[in-house]
Amino acid sequence: MSVRVESITKRFGADAGRVTGVSGVSFEAPSHAITSLVGPSGSGKSTLLRLVAGLEQPDQGRVLVEGEDLTRVPVQARRLGFVFQNYALFRHMSVFDNIAFGLSVRGASRKEQAARVSELLELVQLADYAKRLPDQLSGGQRQRVALARALAPRPRVLLLDEPFGALDTQVRVELREWLHRLHEQTQVTTLLVTHDQEEALELSQHVVLLREGQVEQAGTPTELYESPRSAFVASFLGGAQILKGQVSEGQLQLPGQELSADVDHADGAVEAFVRPHDVRLVRADEPGGAPARVERLIRVGGFVKLTVRLDSGEVLQVQMSRTAQLDLGVEAGDPVRVDLGGIRVIARRGYSI
Amino acid sequence: MRPALPGFRLTLGIVLLYTSLIVLLPLAALGARAGELGLSGIWAVVSDERALRAYGLSFGAALVAALINAVLGLMLAWVLVRYRFPGRRLIDGLVDLPFALPTAVAGIALTAIYSPKGMLGGPLAELGLQVAFTRVGITVALVFIGIPFVVRTVQPVLEGLDPSLSEAAQVLGASRLQTFFRVILPALLPATLTGFALALARGVGEYGSVVFISGNMPYRTEVASLLIITKLEQYDYEGATALAAVMLLVSFAILLGVNLLQRRLSRGLT
Fold first, then answer.
1. Per-residue confidence at B181, pLDDT binned at 50, 70, 90?
2. Which chain A residues touch B if contact means CB-CB below 8 Å?
3. How far is the C-alpha of A97 from the C-alpha of A111, rounded, in Å?
4. C-beta atoms of B172 and A86 within 8 A
5. Do A76 and B167 touch (CB under 8 A)?
6. pLDDT at residue A349, as a whole number
7. Fewest CB within 10 angstroms: A9, A43, A197, A308, which?
């Protein structure tokens, strides 16, 4: 069941507070895939999800599921599954009744309900918890109940609004893995809203990156990561650092630096990006690269994060494995040389930051 | 963790002393005074036809009024919380008025309106419905007195009710009615029940507002609290306390029952 959103616009009044609108957004979420709607807070990603669900009415534009126009179809009749960030479980109902809710309001028999609910409890690995109340469950378990409840009526599309937002990091990572396996089994077309780029890159086959109510770039995670169309995309996904420069005859020149790199780009002013783990450091007494000094060095588990100031004044964040750092033999305060061989030019001249 | 307030023993001591002085001691005095009649004496007083009628009226009218308030109070709270309209704050303030008003003032005002010559009483009388000086009038007074209890207990719960609950229900295919009766109402029921119990308790003992509108006809529109006052005025202190003690026991039993019911209903909600 593919989802297509066609130039949808929704504006909220000035007093709407933290809800942001979207303007002229179009995208397509392919069948059986997980598509992430990702962006910083205020980018309109949740609004977009609510528009697809029918919880908000668009000012303009259409929502289609498998070619069927749902724009005027009331929320109850859309047959979509929605998982809220805060779970929105019915606290007075047992886990069983929560999951059965979508079936019972549609008039399914007791027997059908019981069969489907136990199937789902099996799927979300909560078979022993049918009689519990939501308050007797942990956060991760509640989220799984919310997923089971959304899946019970066999929705055409599953919509997840920051599903792991309220959980601590360890549970998040576990649930992410689990959601991935669940999706392999169910193959339900899924729209996932998240502000976590790692979640988006890891879970989805398709990413729609939003900024201030508009699509900044859409494509596969690799496309967005490797060929960002703007500085915003580059820095949002993978934390790239943006440098302004000049291309002439296939050589990228960064002003004030003895840095250059071979690039495949037409001549003119460009923005280039380099991610912390793509910056290479070499010993100060070796040739190549630009002179610099390590200002700060932080160890994070198996990684080290370095803040490096080039003699020309620019500051770069660098990341490398602990082993590489020991091999290199630099500590905070040491002089080094910086090799920006990993730098890439942003395909389309984008917004400056 | 160290509790913010000083030790359990000290606070429990204060609680026990306080409730003893303020609540239990007067009640014990009541029981002791009534006890002077002996069990058979008490039975004679409270099983008297006039007393039974008064009890029936007090509890009956309070029950009907509390039920009306439970429904209308819920609706009022709903409108005040869920909608924005001009005058909302004014109405919100008006809800508390029955608390603030001396009950006798309420009684006089209601009597003026509902008496056969009054603004509403006149037209209603022509339709064949007499309000003032009947049981209907008593119920009207008790509805007036009881409304803030339900509104003020339901309101905060409703304000704290997560809007995504009804959204979740609707995405799952629930109609508006199904959403209300299966998701929203169960969440509000414990608070509504508390409001109902408070309104009921208040209504059972109400005197000031009822005494004017009821007409106070023995066997017909005489409430128990009025009968107690009448006995006091006749210096029949033992009879009055006997009546009061029984009323107290019944009220306590009702409140206890409501509390137990409420605990069952709020399963999972607190």
1. very high
2. 53-55, 75-82, 84, 86, 88, 90-93, 101-102, 105-106, 133-135, 149-150, 153
3. 13
4. no
5. no
6. 47
7. A9
